[in-house]
């Protein structure tokens, strides 16, 4: 399996053990640990053991353990409500330039704990959606 690391990346340093973490699960492909700046109790991160800044740059084999790891963490947290979040790029709120996934418990229906999301839904016409679908399918 291909490996890639970046010496200046904080997550690559955590993977190598150069920076301590509160490790939860580790597999051949991913490492998960508690977030040190949590949005709620139990907020955890899952990071692939391959340095890629954005999701589309990560080799497919590194995705295999992500959702099973997220499921195990969600079950261990015992929460019924949670978000799984993955951001790509600064304007999409990515703070660390290494692909990572957040598991964020949402313990109550308020804006005081857990992820708070705005959802600026658009209203495209059916013709616009059909045109976009055709364009995307031609590239897939």
Order of helices and strands: HEEEHEEH
- Radius of gyration (Å): 17 Å
**Number of separate strands:** 5
Distance between the termini: 25 Å
- Largest sheet at a glance? 5 strands, antiparallel
Shape label: globular
Look at the helices and sheets and give the structural class: alpha+beta
Q: Percent of residues in beta strands? A: 15-25%
Short description:
The protein has 140 residues and is an alpha+beta fold.
Written overview of the protein:
The protein has 140 residues and is of the alpha+beta class. The chain is 24% helix and 16% strand. It has a five-stranded antiparallel beta sheet with strand order 1-2-3-5-4, covered by helices on one side. It starts with 9 loop residues before the first helix and ends with a helix.
Fold topology:
Layout: H1 10-16, E1 23-26, E2 30-34, E3 44-48, H2 66-77, E4 82-85, E5 101-105, H3 126-139
Antiparallel strand pairs: 1-2, 2-3, 3-5, 4-5
Structural features:
five-stranded antiparallel beta sheet; alpha+beta; 140 residues; single chain
